[in-house]
Amino acid sequence: MRVKLYYFYAISTQIMPNKLQAVLPHPQLSPAAEMRIQVALAVLWIVLHTVLFWKYGVRTTDDSREYLTYAHAIADDFYFANNYYIKHLGYPLFLALLFKLGLCLKGVIIVQTLLSGVATMFFYRTTKLLAGNALAPALATFVLIIWYDLQLFHAFIMTESLYVSLLMFAFYLIVKADSVRQSLWAVPVLLYVALVRPNGFIALVAYMAYLITIAYLAAPTKQARRLLLLVVLVVPLASILVVDQYLLQSFTVVETYEKGEVIYLYKGLLVHSDKPIIMPPEHASPLTKLYLFVRDNTSYFFRMSALRFLLFWGNVKPFFSVFHNTMIALLLYPLYLFGAIALLKDRIPLPIRIFSVLLVLQQAFITTITSENETGRFLMSIVFIVFAFGATGISWQIEKWKTGTSR
């Protein structure tokens, strides 16, 4: 018993393998140059969001009206309706707090935007910790700021702005942590992330994988490692149960398949079946419906899913301008390549790499089996991970060229 207790204590204080430090073994930027770049990035961010606020002010969608109705019910009567939007409870709570403080909708947009600015500063620090140099955070933050499709969401009364800002802050806390105990500071943030959007649970699953990886690396015996592998099997099963019985109950996932839509509500790109589509019984649970649909319409399902998968990662859209799609390809695709190279190196601790990869892959899987969005917002929710690792990989390649090492 004492051995087991000691093992769990050791895990809680476990120093991260290959501990990250913001040191510059091969400086690529002087402190003065880095400061100038930081000032330039801050000015760029301020100018961009000033223009966005002046041009758009407050933008709303159909969902926005529901969030606002829910928020006013909470602020005025402390009433929590048990409907679909309770799965987005974190955002109406955020709005209700701001309304209680006397802010109007323009005030909400300003607060959202300022939070995104704070998150951007933490993103800079995170990337510097990952790369160990000053070039990567400068590049990653620059791309983050100029990525218009992402920055535009801060002008909307929608969950995306708060969701992405909180995820970036949680990511910083995890990367900065020198031990499991320190990483626990990220848990309250991750829990709130799960309240902001239904698919926010993917961040908690990724954090569980992060903890399991640390425990596995620190396991003193093969028996302890086998026990952890059993946990690895149990966690996904529990996640599937939560998704099936709670998160998907208000969604019509399979029902949209019958329309052949690859991009939600977009009729310009449809998948057609060469035989009648067999729909599952209405009373079945969401994941049971999915299983039955795949079983009975296998080719049709995988053709739709393959297109969604490509559109998610590619991010280009048939209705975007040629310039828009070209810029996506020129900026995003090289970052994928260099990000993959960075992930394959041991310079970043394995638990952090596991967290990052699992977070992105879960979002890709959800989009693949549901539908892509016309704005590409599902990739936008985790694209900062791509920017951070992609810029890290580029900076390491430059470092390699400068020093002539194979590191």
Give a written overview of the molecule:
The chain is mainly α and 407 residues long. The protein has helices at residues 2-12, 31-56, 62-77, 90-100, 105-131, 135-146, 148-151, 159-176, 180-183, 186-196, 201-218, 222-247, 253-257, 286-296, 298-314, 322-344, 350-369, 377-380, 383-403. It has one domain. The chain is 70% helix and 0% strand. Residues 1-6 and 21-27 have low confidence and may be disordered.
At a glance:
With 407 residues, the protein is an all-alpha fold. The protein has helices spanning 2-12, 31-56, 62-77, 90-100, 105-131, 135-146, 148-151, 159-176, 180-183, 186-196, 201-218, 222-247, 253-257, 286-296, 298-314, 322-344, 350-369, 377-380, 383-403. The chain has one domain.
Radius of gyration, in Å, reads 22 Å
Cα shape? globular
Poorly predicted regions are: 1-6, 21-27
Strand content: under 5%
Largest sheet: none
Q: Summarize the helix and strand pattern as letters.
A: HHHHHHHHHHHHHHHHHHH
How far apart lie the N and C ends? 43 Å
Number of helices: 19
Mean pLDDT: 88
In total, how many domains does the architecture comprise?
A: 1
In which range does the helix fraction lie? Answer: over 70%
Q: Structural class, please?
A: mainly alpha
How many strand elements? 0
